[in-house]
What we know:
- The protein has helices at 8-41, 48-57, 61-76, 157-163; strands spanning 96-102, 117-125, 128-136, 147-154, 169-174, 177-187.
- By secondary structure, it is α+β, with helices and mostly antiparallel strands.
- The chain starts with 7 loop residues before the first helix and ends in an 8-residue tail after the last strand.
- The chain crosses the membrane at residues 24-42, 54-73.
- Keywords: Membrane, Transmembrane, Transmembrane helix.
Amino acid sequence: MQTKVVTEPDTIKCMATIQTRRKLIVIVLLWTAAGGALMRQFSAQGSMLRDIGTLLMLLWLPIVGNIIAWLVARMRRSPAPGSETFGAPDTFKPHALVEITLRAAKLPSEDAPLAVGEHRCALVVGNDGFSARWFVRPGESVRRGKTHSLQIEFLAPALALQKLQPPAAFRMLEGGAFIGDGQIRQLLSLEAMPD
């Protein structure tokens, strides 16, 4: 039995679906209110149709709060940072040597060596998290519940190495769950150190 790990693209896709639904609801309510205004305009004074038109016109009121909140969030939103990402696997430049103990599998079916290839995670110290990647090379066996020495590359080494000086302890976050604990043993790339 395999568990599904929610990745960032899945989260973005879900949020886009929610935003689309919200926009559709706003459009439908505004059109209903516009229809109510027309009904009110062309109905006789004191008729039931005029009262129904007035009620339909009032449907836009709950939307006003949402529109104001959206405008305030839009004005406060900081500009999006540049989309930094790791390069191809052959551009891997390790910044630190770490000792990691991956947490034991909860199900016997998950108790298998990790797949060969690139693994991305965040190393968390206190409230700060730093994007990182590491590799399981062909022929290596990285198992849960055991301690392994691995080389880590940081997405923003200048920021990460300020907090992750040896022997800093950290937790490893992947897909919204902490999957391991570790400690920085040695810095490997001194040119990435901040001034």
